[in-house]
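Q: Given only this backbone (620 positions), what sequence would you predict?
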């Protein structure tokens, strides 16, 4: 087959353009990326060889070889791993399949400096070769196949693929270095880079100098070494490799479980939110090894979805080496490992949460919404997870624990109040909260989608029920007013005056509301909407509507503030003859206004505008 010319996927071109033109200060990381890929490729072939030994064709001594050539100005990095065929080359080196890519690219600003720091977080893997090379050749032959291939590109929008009869099993990457980047052909420099970034790789990396091969790294998998012999930098480098991440890990947890089940865990919690954390496939990202042999990075049984932010490796002594991915489902050994991992991770989070210097607040901001999923996914550990949760409240901009909430409860208060919405600022202004704020009763402000589900599923925390402040009746009468603050509000309307007004409103609004009633919830606002006990909450209904999950709107209860001067005047109006039309207009205006405050879209904005103009006209 003759040479074929193909175009990079648009996203790759965009990325390459930034990589090539940015003045990336840390160019040397290209070598880490190529070694990391080579090591992954060897891991994959080692695993395939467990069930199909013939695929190794007698060459199972995995290795990576780095060869600089100052005369030709090339640097080659080769491995004898799984290799790539034509389709693999086109797919893997011509597109970006990673989830979160388009999200990432949409954040790029065109400002070189900002974009480089973004790339630092995202990582460009193989494409980082173009930071130092003006041309890159990839010569590869896939294990078990006869035909080899050559991929070649200058990173300018196109690449070529052609047959390459001389290719050996595995992959050789040849970098034709840019004139300014010849430092990467110096032996001492390469040695230093490998030591710094790739010492933890579990297979030997050789450097060829003056025709001699010399092993440069320690070549023992990092997690098998004793903790005392591993530096913080080495832990971080391994995190970068195993998590394909570029930030500093927030938490590093390295331990050996001994006893009935033996395994080693080297786990990390990232410092920054990975781009795909809310991607619907919710993959977990801890790699499974058995006796140091890589098995899979896609083992859903290893950790529950609510811990999917954890990265790292687990190496088991007890699973059989030739275990297939299918056999991992419902495996009792794996179930025990999973229970152990969950216990360790939650235990470590607890320690961090109790340590004022531990930076738990930052962790919570980044991953709290994910961890909270455990509140209804993991029934057994619900209380443990609740203790780890933090909440912003009407009384605290700093997230607090439920234990502190309980300590701050008012005398006579017997529920944990919460309200759900899209955004803290808007939530704080909710009319439903006015009465709570006046009485000094703290309300949890919940803004994650998951918050719509767990409070009802859980019911109680240490004997106190969770109760929505925007749903059902709010009985705050048993709560004492704050010290020295006797009720300074105006007297409420008389019972029958109020009843007449409520009746007039009900008549006007008909089926649109479930009820109209007087409220103790309000201080400033004349009206607000609440959901009836047992109905879908208002915020949840809006979320469901946005996702086309429901179409109907459940009728709400309109609550009226019997102490508000507008309500008093409307009540006086209600006594007069022939006021029905004006009262109906007022009822609709107040109802629509309450819906706007809720963030609802008015079903009939034209009528709202007409009534408002009419009222204004009467006023002036
Ligand atoms: P990542 O390693 O995060 O997947 P890269 O850009 O580093 O992203 O690599 C893209 C893909 O190209 C890899 O996932 C792998 O499938 C393939 N690849 C890269 N280098 C090699 C190699 N040396 N041997 C086999 N496949 C490779
Ligand atoms: Mg890579």
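A: Predicted residues:
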């Amino acid at each position: 087959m003759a040479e074929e010319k193909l175009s990079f996927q648009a996203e790759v071109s965009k990325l390459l353009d930034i990589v090539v033109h940015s003045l990336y200060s840390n160019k040397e990381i290209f070598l880490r990326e190529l070694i990391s890929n080579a090591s992954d490729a060897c891991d994959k072939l080692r695993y395939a060889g467990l069930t199909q030994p013939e695929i190794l064709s007698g060459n199972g001594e995995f290795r990576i070889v780095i060869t600089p050539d100052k005369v030709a100005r090339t640097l080659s990095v080769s491995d004898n791993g799984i290799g790539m065929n034509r389709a693999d080359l086109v797919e893997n080196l011509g597109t970006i399949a990673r989830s979160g890519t388009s999200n990432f690219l949409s954040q790029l600003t065109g400002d070189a400096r900002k974009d480089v720091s973004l790339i630092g977080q995202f990582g460009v893997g193989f494409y980082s070769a173009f930071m130092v090379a003006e041309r890159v050749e990839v010569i590869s032959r896939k294990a078990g196949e006869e035909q080899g291939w050559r991929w070649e590109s200058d990173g300018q929008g196109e690449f070529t693929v052609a047959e390459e009869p001389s290719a050996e099993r595995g992959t050789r990457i040849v970098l034709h270095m840019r004139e300014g980047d010849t430092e990467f052909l110096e032996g001492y420099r390469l040695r230093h880079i490998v030591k710094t970034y790739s010492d933890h790789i579990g297979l030997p990396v050789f450097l060829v100098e003056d025709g001699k091969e010399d092993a440069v790294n320690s070549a023992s998998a990092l997690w098998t070494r004793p903790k005392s012999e591993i530096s913080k930098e080495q832990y971080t480098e391994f995190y970068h490799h195993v998590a394909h991440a570029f930030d500093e890990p927030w938490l590093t947890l390295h331990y050996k479980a001994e006893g009935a089940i033996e395994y080693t865990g080297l786990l990390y919690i990232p410092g920054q939110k990975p781009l795909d954390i809310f991607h619907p496939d919710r993959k977990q990202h801890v790699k499974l090894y058995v006796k140091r042999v890589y098995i899979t990075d896609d083992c859903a049984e290893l950790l529950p979805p609510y811990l999917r932010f954890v990265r790292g490796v687990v190496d088991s002594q007890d699973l059989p080496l030739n275990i297939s991915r299918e056999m991992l489902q419902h495996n009792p050994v794996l179930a025990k490992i999973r229970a152990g991992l969950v216990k360790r991770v939650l235990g470590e989070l607890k320690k961090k949460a109790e340590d004022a210097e531990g930076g738990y607040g930052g962790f919570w901001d980044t991953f709290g919404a994910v961890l909270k999923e455990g509140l209804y996914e993991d029934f057994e550990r619900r209380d443990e997870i609740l203790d780890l949760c933090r909440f912003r409240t009407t009384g605290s901009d700093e997230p607090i624990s439920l234990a502190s909430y309980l300590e701050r409860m008012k005398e006579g208060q017997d529920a944990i109040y919460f309200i759900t919405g899209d955004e803290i600022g808007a939530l704080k202004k909710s009319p439903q909260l006015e009465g709570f704020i006046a009485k000094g009763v703290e309300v949890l402000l919940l803004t994650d989608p998951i918050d719509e589900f767990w409070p009802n599923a859980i019911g109680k925390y240490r004997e106190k029920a969770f109760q929505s402040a925007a749903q059902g009746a709010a009985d705050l009468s048993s709560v004492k007013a704050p010290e020295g603050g006797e009720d300074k509000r105006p007297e409420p309307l008389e019972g029958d005056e109020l009843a007449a007004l409520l009746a007039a409103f009900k008549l006007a609004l008909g089926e649109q509301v479930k009820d109209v009633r007087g409220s103790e919830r309000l201080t400033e606002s004349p009206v607000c909407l609440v959901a009836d006990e047992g109905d879908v909450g208002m915020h949840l209904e809006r979320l469901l509507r946005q996702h086309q999950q429901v179409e109907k709107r459940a009728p709400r209860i309109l609550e009226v503030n019997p102490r508000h001067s507008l309500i008093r005047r409307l009540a006086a109006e209600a006594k007069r003859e022939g006021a029905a039309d004006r009262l109906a207009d007022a009822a609709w205006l107040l109802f629509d206004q309450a819906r706007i405050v809720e963030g609802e879209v008015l079903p009939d904005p034209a009528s709202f505008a007409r009534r408002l103009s009419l009222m204004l006209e009467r006023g002036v």
